[in-house]
Specification:
25% strand; 7 strands; 7-stranded mixed sheet; alpha/beta; single chain; Maf protein; 208 residues
């Protein structure tokens, strides 16, 4: 029987991005909102702390294994900002376009070589009666001077990763899922999840 795995988010883009990364596992991925109102105050001081707040809330709401991520964009020229405040950089409404406008304004006049940045993703995994586990991955790049591409979400249109000459918004979902910070963090989480799913099989199931 497939195990229900709950993603602690209300962001449909995030659910769609993560789902392909867990294909092949005997899990049924559901959003926390399917079990009731999911509204978490993300007041942690680190990405890991905020991810844990969401994964613990999703586990308690659903009664199932749950995980959540928190992602931050760290830009060197502005002392690592927006960091943990990335989603609300331009205000509490979490407006991606306004966030990008503010970032580009802050970096106006900054030369290409000093526009270095990185996306950081932390994932927290929660199970009943077990301390939460966390996983972290980063993706280095730089901030463009204008938007490029129409895909993705968040800051994707202004982030040019070091391993490519395209912004995340210019990549297909499959390409981004091979290279992004979130993809790398989910791969770490997936490795642990595979072990746990195997441990929970009966001897007959394990030898089938």
């Amino acid at each position: 029987m497939s195990r229900i795995l709950v993603l602690g988010t209300s962001n449909r883009h995030k659910l769609g991005e993560i789902q392909p990364l867990l294909e092949g596992l005997d899990v049924t991925l559901k959003a926390a909102g399917e079990f009731g109102t999911f509204d978490v105050v993300e007041d942690g001081s680190t990405l890991e702390a905020n991810a844990t707040l969401k994964s613990e809330a999703a586990m308690k709401l659903s009664g199932h294994w749950a995980f959540a991520d928190d992602t931050g964009l760290e830009v060197d020229a502005i002392d690592g900002q927006p960091g943990i405040h990335s989603a609300r950089y331009a205000g509490p409404e979490c407006d991606s376009e306004k966030n990008i406008d503010k970032l580009l304004s802050e970096l106006q006049g900054v030369p290409t070589e000093k526009r270095t940045a990185r996306f950081v993703c932390a994932i927290a995994f929660s199970r009943p009666n077990v301390p939460p586990q966390t996983f972290r991955a980063t993706c280095p790049g730089r901030i463009l001077t204008e938007r490029r591409g129409t895909g993705g979400f968040g800051y994707d249109s202004v982030f040019l990763m070091d391993a490519s000459n395209r912004s995340f918004a210019e990549m297909t979902m499959a390409e981004k899922n091979r290279l992004s910070h979130r993809a790398c963090a989910v791969k770490l989480f997936r490795t642990e999840l595979v072990k746990l799913l195997l441990d929970n099989l009966t001897p007959r199931e394990r030898n089938a």
